[in-house]
């Protein structure tokens, strides 16, 4: 059983309008689903990804309107790393961000910047053979488009335990100082831990909530047993409509999810229609008018 790279990454925003604008209009990702938190239907759950909502490209946000800015500390991911094809693509993005009044730091084959709420982002030149997962956008040349996740950077508080779970339970391979690679039949992704800053972590707007790793659907149930055998307590399998999920917290405190590669976003309808309509979990469908009225009105950025 191998984890097939990063499946999706979920974060928190306090401003769905600004968040939608930044990730779709500026970064050129596609809104592939506009839904609500299964556990709290008054909280938006927005999904940005490649053109068809592939695992490996899916960045999601829960909106808590007006949420205070968070601060990444021990046990939290502090930067999300995406792939692009070339150094020229990094230069394109540096200029595009500058035209939006956003500063970025280009160093070698890496461009670091932050989203409008301070969430750390980074683009790196891809060195792997994984299929590029890109979205179409009228202002972004296809050769410069973001290609999906490369990895995440996190702060450790218990490096020994973090290493034990990654290597002994999740099948990760140590690939350098604090970095572990999770690679499967079709994709690979890494997590890199460094020592945490002294300021305590504070969840909030602009922080990462959890990182999900991809599993083969037929192997998914067996991961619950493998985690238990490795001394890791997890949730049971939970149906998340687009995929099935298992959650557990690794020893430093980062919340991981193991998510099946299918069925995916086309359970909602054809690829062309993804992101155009508010999708509600079936149990909330009867409350559509009341729930819609409570959600932040969003411009139609679907394409
Ligand atoms: Zn998730």
Which percent range fits the helix content? 10-25%
Uncertain spans, ≥5 residues at pLDDT below 50? Answer: none
Q: What pattern of helices and strands is seen along the backbone?
A: EHEEEEHEEEEHEEEEHEEEH
Bound molecules: zinc ion
3D architecture notes:
The chain contains five helices and 16 strands. The chain has 303 residues and is α+β, with helices and mostly antiparallel strands. The protein has a single domain (6-294), classed as 2,3-Dihydroxybiphenyl 1,2-Dioxygenase, domain 1 (Roll). The longest helix is centred in the N-terminal third of the chain and has 13 residues, at 87-99. The radius of gyration is 18 Å and the shape is globular. The structure holds zinc ion. Residues 8, 10, 210, 212, 257 line the site of zinc ion.
Which labels suit this protein?
eight-stranded mixed beta sheet; single chain; binds zinc ion; 2,3-Dihydroxybiphenyl 1,2-Dioxygenase, domain 1; 303 residues; alpha+beta
Q: What is the element layout, followed by pairings?
A:
Blueprint: E1 6-13, H1 16-26, E2 30-37, E3 40-49, E4 58-63, E5 77-84, H2 87-99, E6 105-107, E7 110-114, E8 120-125, E9 149-156, H3 159-169, E10 173-174, E11 179-183, E12 188-195, E13 207-215, H4 220-229, E14 238-239, E15 243-249, E16 255-263, H5 288-294
Parallel strand pairs: 1-4, 5-8, 9-12, 13-16
Antiparallel strand pairs: 1-13, 2-3, 3-4, 5-9, 6-7, 7-8, 10-11, 11-12, 14-15, 15-16
Bound molecules: zinc ion (ZN).
Zinc ion is lined by residues 8, 10, 210, 212, 257.
In short:
With 303 residues, the chain is of the alpha+beta class.
